[in-house]
Amino acid sequence: MRLSPAVALQAPVLVVSSLPQVEGSRRVTRRLPPFPPGRAGSDAADVAPLAPIRKSLRRFWPYTRGLRRFFVVGVVAAIVATACEVVAISLFGRITDEVLGSGDLGAFWRPAAAWIALAAVAAGASFASAYAAAVGGERFLLRLRDGVFDHLQTLTPDFFDNRRLGDIMARLTDDIEAIEELVVSGLIRLITALISVVFFATAAVFLRWDLALVTFALIPAFVLVSKGFTGRFRKAAARERLNNGVMNSAIEEALSNQALVQAHNRQETESERLHAAGRGWLLANLAQARLSALYGPAVQVVETGCLLTIIGVGAWEIASGRLTLGGLLAFAAYLAYLYPTVRGLGETALTVSEAAAGSDRIIEVLDTPPAVAERPGAAVPVASAPSSGLASPGRGLVEFRDVDFTYPNRSRPTLSGLSFTASPGELIVCTGPSGVGKSTVAKLLLRFYDPTGGRILLDGVDIGEMPFHTLREHVTLLQQENLLFSGTVGDNIAYGRPGADRADRADRADIVRAAVEAGAHDFIRALPQGYDTPVGQRGRLLSGGQRQRIAIARAILRDTPVLVLDEPLTGLDEPTAQRIMEPLRRLMAGRTTILITHDLRLVPDTAEKLVLEPPRSPERPRPFRLSRRPITRLQGVA
Ligand SMILES: Nc1ncnc2c1ncn2[C@@H]1O[C@H](COP(=O)(O)OP(=O)(O)OP(=O)(O)O)[C@@H](O)[C@H]1O
Known about the structure:
This protein is α/β, with parallel strands linked by helices. It folds into two domains: 11-366, ABC transporter transmembrane region fold, CATH 1.20.1560; 398-636, P-loop containing nucleotide triphosphate hydrolases (Rossmann fold, 3-Layer(aba) Sandwich). Helices cover 55% and strands 8% of the residues. Helix 2 runs parallel beside helix 5 (165-207), helix 5 (165-207) runs antiparallel to helix 6 (209-256) and helix 8 packs antiparallel against helix 9 (325-366). Bound molecules: adenosine-5'-triphosphate. Adenosine-5'-triphosphate binds at residues 158, 161, 407, 409-410, 414, 434-440, 598.
């Protein structure tokens, strides 16, 4: 919640232009909550830990490398503008005494011309200050967002499965802006305000040291008020962010599942959930607004007391003949800048402490280590070259050797002592009842997790020793739920091979060739804009079978020696499944394929099967059993 600008001591301000303000103080509210999983409204318990502000500054300061010159320009220009203000105020005193007091119009022109010139310089400096700070701030934002996003992309899919999407997105947007507020705008405002205080205070001492001393003696009152508010403000801001996150998650979840909501007649429930979350946000906002509304008047009372004290002392000085009216007015004009600037310092402290709540949430993301790390100096396997396509002897050999695996947040193992070998070009059907761990085999092969025991090898090299990029260049995963982006049909196929969608004809020809092989070309041609037809959000403008064919075309274009098909026929009716089987067979031909399915309708009896079985009793030390049958080549799949 932003605080309103100073208003109490505005009376003499008519003599000079306003103090340069460094713009860019964004609204730092509307943050989302930290990472606890679960549905909106269920978990508004904790906010991210409140790291000390200094720690936040230290953490994010390196991101300002190369941008600090903009901050320096911002501060220096603000100082120039402030200096102009200081001189202009003394001109105001001169005009009052020499022109207004004596009625001598001739003495007016010189100080008036100087004043105009100063105002012009101050205006230019203010512009330079605000713009330089904005350039530095925006570039900082871009860099930090890129950095946090890059870090997020090092985290395994499991990280995202355990968190709410709305929350992660809010961290990438609002919370990063909050850090900009803390590290860039807030800091520049703080430095500028401090320098301004020194300027105005020095000028006040030169004008009337005795009145200046009285003025300074009153400053601790501002500090006390500001101190009383800072901690409360930060807590209120963190609470507001948490509740806002719960509300955004409620919106995101309800809108992204509208078909489910409407089909189950749960609109009212979702509306109530949003209302409850919105109410939580409202209360948190009101708590923040209360603090903000209290802060302004509290400071105004202090300011008014200070001003009246100075006027009283000044009146006594005038009555004793030691001060002119122009002198008192000029002094009051300095006060009109000094006190609001002191108050501005307090406000900056509040804004910065509020923004720190956002930085806590980003630090929490950056401190989350990837569940699976790439080993330093990881080596590329010798036997295969990326994107070299179909398996040949010695390429695409997959071996699981006595693999155990337990999910990090589970106590019971999911896989135990799993061993099998898939030779280049072979098909292995991984089957078993639901929840037995079939998809987990795929996750381990792609290193979304590391096994808790045993080894997985690709072409004789432990995948734990390989760079992620190399491993994933060799394995294509075709998932149960076909994931498409909201681009065009062509974009989605081209996603399999970066660069394939560039404008040159050969690449487009590759896309078409892949679509033909996937049996997708005919339906794509029948779409209104052919390959340029948008597929809608997550491909929802297409049917399940069409989405599946596009995913197959993408996999064909990707052309890797190893293929993992995770329930590729789920959700498709028998005729569609039969039709999809044909292009799938073309895709599998010559590649090492692990076909994960519990539906053996379309799998020939002769195919080698890896049957995962649940434990027969809790005492059984190895909860799963592996059954093997003689190896069958893919060509056997009809
Ligand atoms: N990210 C996870 N964290 C914790 N446990 C998980 C996670 N993913 C899966 N599990 C658990 O691991 C077990 C195996 O899950 P997996 O998805 O591998 O089963 P599956 O055999 O593929 O099931 P289905 O045939 O229903 O898709 C299940 O009991 C599941 O609840």
